[in-house]
Every structure is written in structure tokens, then in C-alpha cells.
Design goal:
alpha+beta, Phosphoribosyl-aminoimidazole Synthetase, Chain A, domain 2, seven-stranded mixed β-sheet, five-stranded mixed β-sheet
Amino acid sequence: MKITMAHGSGGKSSAQLMQEIFGRHLGNPVLDRMEDAAVLTVGASAPTAAGAAEDPGAPAPARIAVSTDSFVVTPLEFKGGDMGKLCVCGTVNDLLMMGAVPKYLTCGFILEEGLDVDLLDRLVASMARQAEEAGVIIIAGDTKVVEGKGGLYINTTGIGEIPEGRDVSCSNGRPGDVILLSGNLGDHHACILSHRMEIENDIESDCAPLNDVVEGLYSAGVHVKIMRDVTRGGLGTVVNEIAEKSHVSVELDEEAIPVHEDVRSFADILGLDPLYMGNEGKMIAVVPEEEAEKALAAMAETAHGRDAAIIGRLREGEGAFLRTRLGARRRFDVLYGEGLPRIC
């Protein structure tokens, strides 16, 4: 077998690569959870001798979230964003999905020979602006230059602190829980593809940090069980992962899933399914049924959640299903095949 572009799609081929190669050799209890970020406990006191009392003055152990990501998007600048903005938002959002408050980033740059220096300056300036908006500081970095045709690749690692009482995991779902989506699907996917195909339209990427949506939920007192940002592989892949890890079935209401009319028309023309289109500023939250309306109101009050909607619920069983506009119920799987390469 050889690596193909499908292995970078975020779908079934990506999952097989993670399990059969990386997971097989590098697996451990932290990595094996395969969440958006690793959760670690730091500052715990050393084990005491049998029968000895623990030091009451020792600081309580803290939990942190750590995530790393690499960005290879083309083009480097697009409507609504650029690689500098994207690399901050993508990493910050992965931390947020574990209930963490993002604090620090590191950035590694691989510059191809021929990269325009003015373009690099714009991208780094954009990164700085976005880091300030997201409340993180960039504390370390590295730069390498390689042969090439003027491209750029960025790797980021993020660290965030998880406040006491927050417990977010894809395994937390239970039958009856409700799924909320923070806004319209497919904007980033449609934007990137429009640039590559040189199609003129007004579609902009949804690239954004989701601090306000996440903190809005917690400030409203919502008991958030699961959060996931809907990136490569799309909503269809994410909810299948939740169904598998929580040992439930997921049922989505097609009529309730928000998609901007421009994106829907674009997708229809090209035969794309918004269910599998990538995003860079959207998330889902799974909450108890009795808190669904409170969660929806909290999301809708934020800048990045104003188009939020209740889109489905968890049920007994297994697998993921879509209740179509015509009333039929069809099963859907994770993304299979390439999707759109180099979207993030």
C-alpha cells in the first residue's frame, strides 16, 4: 500500500492510518483516547509512603490540554482568512473542544525557497492579530528553509488549562442527549475550492476562534458533555466518531442543519454534500436534553454562534442516521475517499 491524498482527508483512510501505523507503534493511554487534544494532569505530589499523610500545603494538581497541528492549506490567502489566521484558530479550537482555556502556542515554519517575503510578513502579522484575539501568546518557534516553489507549511502546538469541573470527552454521550451546531456548514470548504477553481462568488471562510461560544456555554451553566470542531471529514465523520466512542446511535435532522444558501447552491452545482464539507469555525456540542434550549440561547448570543441550531440527538443503538427532508431515515458513514486536499 502507498500513501494517497485520501489518507489526509480526515475520513476513513485517515483513521486507518492512525490506527494501523501511528497507534500501533506509539499508542499509550493518553494518545489512545484520540480526542481533539491530549488531557494531562500536572503538578501532582509525589507518592507518599504507606500510611503517611499527604502534604496539605501542596498545590492541587492541574489539568492541561495539549494539541499539535500542521497546516498546508492552498492558497495561502483566501476570502475570510489566510494560513496565519488559520493555524492559530485551528489549534486554539482543538484546545477549546476539551473545555480548556487556551494559553500558549509554539510555531514551526517550513519555508520553501522562492516564498515572497512580503507575503510571509502578512501571514505572520495575521497570526499575531489572531493570537491576541484568541487570548494566547506564542512562546517558541522554529524556522527551516527547503527547496521548493515558494510554498509554506506551519506546525503549531497549543497548551491550555482546563478549569476544575469540566469533563469533555467523545465517550460521554448517552441516549437522549441533544446535539447543537454553532452555525452554517461548508463555508471554508466552498471558499477554498472557489479560489482553486477561480470561481467568483461572495463565499468567505468561517475561519474563527470559538472562545466565545465555548465560554458562553459554561457561563450559562450548561453541563457540556462533548464538543468537537467540525473540520476535515465534516459533520458526518464527527458524529460517527461520537456514536462509536459513546456506544450510541446518532440521528440528525437534515431540515435543521444550517447551510448558507450560497454554499448550498455551490455544493449542488459541484455535487458536494455539506455533511462532509470542511469548516474552520464551527463546532458541535452535546448536552443533556433538559439543557438544550439554554445551550442554544447561550450559543446564539455569541458572535460565532449566532446561527446555532439544534440538529439531532443521541439514541439507543449504533451508527449515524439522517432524517431527510422527505421523512426518510438513511444511514451515513464517515467520509470515504479524498474529500478536498490541503484545506487546512
